[in-house]
Amino acid sequence: MSKKILIVEDEIFIALEVEAIVRELGHESAGIAADSAAAMERGSDADVALVDLNLADGPTGVGLGRKLRDSYGITVLYVTANPSQLGEGVPGTLGVVPKPVTETEMRDVIAYAVAAREKVTMPPPRRMRVFSAVA
Prior knowledge:
By secondary structure, the protein is of the alpha/beta class. It has helices at residues 12-24, 36-43, 61-72, 103-117, and strands at residues 4-8, 28-33, 48-51, 75-80, 95-98, 129-130.
């Protein structure tokens, strides 16, 4: 089933590449957000969010992921070069995959997030760390 996926990434070329993959997989982009405010504006229209930690408004991604989950019930997956900033994980969010991410890995990550959203069990992508306390 097609889902709306929000891309929270301040590096526009990376965001556009991810958006192209989202569309190639048959999903719809809920938009690209470079900062927390834009993400919250677009979040009400999303099923899944791929969230970087360090955005145009600073290191706001951790709190933003929680806020998207709590406010809109979005399935949140972090995609970051700084996975250690998440410590033991963020309860209620799906997990994290470290950057850089290949196109194949991004396809797998999106497929996993969509499956989790639909409550379909599948193994996580190889480099992804799943958080144990997913709500």
